[in-house]
Amino acid sequence: MSVLDNWEQWKDFLANRLHHAQNEGMEQSTISDLAYQIGGYLAKQVNPQNDQEKVLADLWSVASPEEQHAIANMMVKLVQNDGSEGTTTTS
Question: Which of 8, 32, 67, 88 could make a disulfide contact with 63, Cβ separation 3.0–4.6 Å?
Fold first, then answer.
């Protein structure tokens, strides 16, 4: 079973990776750029596995690059306080 099969597992996976990156000292701008790159990869290479991913894929497909950055940043914010590793500060 892939983490992409279940929305909550996907969010937990992203949150844990985010917390790890932050704990290693990765800057927010780098995290934002990586989120954008991952979003682009998923949109092109991975079929959505649930309704939430389908909505994100549809939004990504019609968004400009600036809007895609905004979607990626919103996903980072969505998972920022989730997951089992570490703590984060809110903006």
Answer: 67
Amino acid occupying residue 57: A
Cβ neighbours for 44, distance < 8 A, ≥ 6 positions apart: none
User: Is the per-residue pLDDT at 35 higher than 80?
Assistant: yes
Which residue segments constitute the domains of the chain, with CATH numbers given? Answer: 3-79 (1.10.760)
What's the rounded Cα separation, in Å, for the pair 44 and 42?
5
Residue 49 CA: distances (Å) to CA of 16, 35, 57, 69: 20, 19, 10, 22
Interatomic CA distance for residues 59 and 62, integer angstroms: 6
* Tens-place pLDDT, residues 6-30: 788 888 888 888 999 999 999 999 9
For residues 40 and 57, is the Cβ–Cβ distance under 8 A? no
pTM: 0.78
